[in-house]
Amino acid sequence: AEDKGQVIHATGLAGLQELNDAYGKTVGNGVKGQAALLRFDAGEVPQLFADAIHIVPHADGTLAVGSTSERDYEDPTSTDEALDDVIDRATRVLPLLHGAEVIERWAGVRPRSKSRAPMLGAHPLHQGQFIANGGFKIGFGMAPKIAEVMADLMLEDRDRIPDEFRPEASL
Asked: Bridge partners of 63?
């Protein structure tokens, strides 16, 4: 057999569904999130979280608002009135946004482990391989540290994964 080197499964919802099927229970699922990009230059100010809405200014003169958290959905990438509500709530929180042009609307599915924490470490189904999945809302922000911890484990055999992030915490 061909040596593929180290293998890490960072497969999102499909990987969580594989675990659900293998264990016959919900190990993780997908949560749809809708967000919008507005043409609004807020300047150099911090992001705001109010009324369960993130308002994130960007250096390019745009501002993102989001997001929904939808466990039940038919189309993982469609946007609808739920996003209209997010934009309306952002405008109520920050009235200066009233009339700001919506440049882009988007939606996607975030992989969420049962424990809500990332699943990092030895893959429970694929011997000798690894998993990094289920990060949900914190996965993107933690990606640099997750990469560092997983590289240490995979390349240096140095395990610094917190117990609550191990796959067993969700199984």
From this structure: 38, 57
